[in-house]
Write a structure and sequence with these properties.
11 helices, elongated, 55% helix, 196 residues, mainly alpha, two-stranded parallel sheet
């Protein structure tokens, strides 16, 4: 799940940062519960890493006057000051928060996207596609979101059980042994006599 990944990442991030800076002798170990801000920071770290890997071509084209691919150009993507690829749009002048107006762009087929969708699916108690899309769109814009949600929910065992169609009780007429057309003929003759 996404929470597990970000939890591990949050615990390991200070150690990784200390080793990158060359101050591995001064490792700072933290104990206690993880703070929501730390989990959010770890999630944003992974989102930025995925964006740099999956949207590398788009990131190169943003700085030039070259046209973007048609599916992404309609979203009018841009880089924010922190280096995240975000969705543009008509809400730039609204009173909404910057993160609500300009959502983080995620690819359809990536493990992080699947983890975020699965986490949202479980948090919403196996909610439907519309509910999940509304919840995910508070932070992320997934390309072809409905397909990504459908792909992840079809893996859910609980949802598969609820999708199963149970057939009703079979009428006794269908299961009793009789000569062919004997009952059918009587039913039809009774229908015609009742009409007269």
């Amino acid at each position: 799940r996404a929470r597990d990944v970000t939890g591990v990442q949050t615990c390991a991030l200070p150690i990784l940062m200390n080793t990158k800076e060359g101050t591995s002798t001064q490792l700072k170990y933290r104990t206690g519960c993880l703070m929501p801000s730390e989990l959010r920071q770890a999630l944003l770290y992974w989102v930025k890493t995925v964006q740099q890997k999956e949207f590398d071509r788009i990131l190169l084209l943003l700085g030039t006057s070259t046209a973007l691919p048609p599916g992404v150009a309609a979203l009018s993507p841009f880089l924010d000051p922190d280096g995240f690829l975000r969705v543009g749009g008509r809400l730039t002048e609204s009173d909404l928060d910057f993160n609500r107006c300009h959502l983080l762009l995620l690819p359809q087929k990536h493990r992080l996207t699947d983890l975020i969708i699965e986490d949202t699916h479980l948090a919403l108690l196996h909610g439907g596609a519309q509910l999940m899309m509304a919840s995910l769109r508070s932070d992320f814009w997934v390309i072809n979101m409905r397909k990504a949600i459908r792909r992840c929910t079809y893996k859910c065992i609980t949802c598969t059980r609820h999708r199963a169609v149970t057939l009703g009780v079979v009428p006794t007429v269908w299961t009793t042994v009789a000569r062919s057309l004997s009952r059918r003929g009587r039913e039809r003759s009774e229908e015609h006599t009742s009409e007269l």
